UniProtKB/TrEMBL annotation:
Residues 283-469 form the Peptidase M28 domain. Keywords: Carboxypeptidase, Endoplasmic reticulum, Glycoprotein, Golgi apparatus, Hydrolase, Lysosome, Metal-binding, Metalloprotease, Protease, Secreted, Signal, Zinc, Zymogen. This is Carboxypeptidase Q. One of its GO terms (biological process) is peptide catabolic process. GO terms for molecular function: carboxypeptidase activity; metal ion binding; metallodipeptidase activity. Belongs to the peptidase M28 family. InterPro entries: CPQ (IPR039866), Peptidase_M28 (IPR007484). It comes from Liparis tanakae (Tanaka's snailfish). It is found in: Endoplasmic reticulum; Golgi apparatus; Lysosome; Secreted. Residues 1-24 form the signal peptide. It holds the Pfam family Peptidase_M28. The lineage of its organism: Eukaryota, Metazoa, Chordata, Craniata, Vertebrata. GO terms for cellular component: endoplasmic reticulum; extracellular space; Golgi apparatus; lysosome. Homodimer. The monomeric form is inactive while the homodimer is active. Its main location: endoplasmic reticulum.
Length: 484
């Protein structure tokens, strides 16, 4: 998944982002709730008392950082990620590979001496099948495509049709009469992932409304070397389902230029995609039980599923591995916090946070015992800050906690924790935190064949692991839970 920096998104997009995996969202509703939620009786004096308590963790924070960055655990999360993704490969919702990934992680957690269990989840099972696209006129050219999750396929003989190229939904509406019987190509400019992903999500239904037979959508990325990017798409209810795939930035611009010259473009599209009945899967859970308040939980997480391209190393293998590594570091140092540290590796995030939603529905009865929920799903590049959503009093405490990260230069606390998988908890008022990394290249690789181990850097992963472990441990060990 993924999101950009933290600029506010349109409210309509918030709904979309909650449904679409690829994006960590910070819903506006959540934000205003957090702002209003001074909801605690912590006085200034209490906060300064807690600041002193937090400062008392400087030594333990330093030990965690030393172990992760300079000591025996140096590069461990990276080599774990390499072993995992080289062995399993990618692991799309419903696939045998995802089952293998869950078994792999179950065994790895157990071998690491953590308490591990699986929680059953029903997940979507979409299969890509064979797919291809060919430009036939004005000249023959292969088009690199990736069908979009939940798309229907074409008839076996494919769909051959003239193309209408548009730059926006508005232009599509203005030229609605030209769309009938055509394949609509969207060549929308990239603004930001959060904004531009609307074309991937809704392009097929918008084109179907004006009579198109299929859509080819410019990949949602600021940078391309002719690589198509996949992702989830949503059919609107009551609108005909037409096949939908992403094409490359280069091919979208090529067809746009041809259309500007008045050339007639014909494409043949063939897609074997289909949706099978929901599959059985699991969220994978590993714990270090708290010594004083075992029922109270600090939850760390990343998602174990990926798209069916590349290795899913960046999205979100890295987030999953640092959420494991954090527990390993704490265990290696012989530490056990007051509260339970729980790592959850979500299933079927890419289909709209499916595993996380079912986890929330099951466990929300205990939401008053969830101290902090954490998610890493924007890559594990150089960490720059901790993003946090919570009451003003909780923000003050977290600002003290991140000071403990001075040895790795990431003492910044930003407002608004983000993430598809923790958003149900944050909406219910549970404090939430996410990892903000130097993510400028994230969308270059996102949902492509390029999401491989080659994108990952061991030192960056050491820093991310250290940050994750220090924050989780200290919050789980403070006298009191974070004030709501
Ligand atoms: C907290 O503050 C609220 C509002 O000032 C008050 O109604 C409530 O009784 C206080 N609770 C405690 C435990 O002091
Ligand atoms: C960790 O990775 C860095 C960068 O690749 C390398 O220089 C260093 O030697 C590695 N350390 C260990 C213990 O493998
Ligand atoms: C809720 O918490 C209680 C006490 O820790 C525990 O026994 C129970 O299993 C929890 N229920 C769920 C659904 O997590
Ligand atoms: C933190 O910043 C200081 C000063 O720029 C630098 O010397 C140090 O190596 C940095 N630490 C890490 C872990 O990057």
């Amino acid at each position: 998944m993924a999101q950009e920096g933290g600029p506010p998104f349109l409210l309509s997009l918030v709904m979309l982002l909650l449904v679409l995996s690829s994006v960590c969202v910070c819903p506006g509703s959540m934000r205003s709730m957090a702002a209003a939620g001074t909801g605690s009786n912590h006085t200034a004096r209490e906060v300064s008392k807690i600041a002193a308590e937090v400062a008392g963790y400087a030594d333990v924070a330093k030990r965690i950082i030393d172990l992760a960055v300079f000591g025996a655990a140096q590069n461990r999360s990276h080599s774990r990620l390499a072993d995992f993704t080289d062995t399993i490969g990618n692991r799309v919702s419903g696939s045998h590979d995802l089952e293998m990934a869950i078994k792999y992680m179950y065994n790895a957690f157990a071998q690491d001496g953590l308490d591990v269990h699986l929680e059953p989840v029903k997940i979507p099972h979409w299969v890509r099948g064979k797919e291809s696209a060919e430009m036939i006129a004005p000249r023959a050219k292969h088009l690199a495509i990736l069908g979009l999750g939940s798309s229907v396929g074409t008839p076996p003989e494919g769909i051959k049709a003239e193309v209408l190229v548009v730059r926006s939904f508005d232009e599509l509406k203005q030229r609605a009469s030209e769309a009938v019987g055509r394949i609509v190509v969207f060549n929308q400019p990239f603004v930001s992932y959060g904004e531009t992903v609307a074309y991937r999500a809704y392009g097929a239904s918008e084109a179907a409304k004006v009579g198109a037979v299929a859509t080819l959508i410019r990949s949602i990325t600021p940078f391309s070397i002719n690589s198509p990017h996949t992702g989830w798409q949503d059919y609107q209810e009551g609108v005909k389902c037409i096949p939908s795939a992403c094409i490359t930035v280069e091919d979208a611009e090529l067809m746009w230029r041809m259309a500007q010259r008045g050339q007639s473009i014909v494409v043949r599209l063939s897609m074997g995609a289909k949706t099978l009945p929901d599959a059985d899967s699991f969220n994978t859970v590993a714990e270090i039980t708290g010594w004083q308040h075992p029922e109270q939980v600090v939850l760390l997480s990343g998602h174990l599923d990926s798209w069916d391209v590349g290795q899913g190393a960046m999205d979100d293998g890295g987030g999953a591995m640092i959420s494991w590594e954090a527990l390993s570091l704490i265990k290696d140092l012989g530490l056990r916090p007051r509260r339970t540290l729980r790592t959850v590796l979500w299933t079927a995030e890419e289909q709209g946070g499916v595993g996380a939603q079912q986890y929330y529905d099951l466990h929300k009865v205990n939401s008053s015992n969830f101290d902090l929920v954490m998610e890493s799903d924007m890559g594990t590049f150089t960490p720059v800050a901790l993003q946090f959503t919570g009451s003003v009093a909780a923000q003050k405490i977290m600002a003290e906690v991140v000071k403990l990260l001075a040895p790795i230069n990431t003492t910044r606390l930003e407002t608004h924790g983000e993430g598809t998988d923790i958003s149900p908890w944050m909406k219910a008022g549970v404090p939430g935190a996410s990892l903000h990394v130097e993510d400028s290249r994230y969308f270059w690789f996102h949902h492509t064949e390029g999401d491989t181990m080659t994108v990952q850097d061991p030192h960056d992963m050491n820093l991310c692991s250290a940050l994750w472990a220090v924050v989780a441990y200290v919050v789980a060990d403070l006298q009191d839970m974070l004030p709501r």
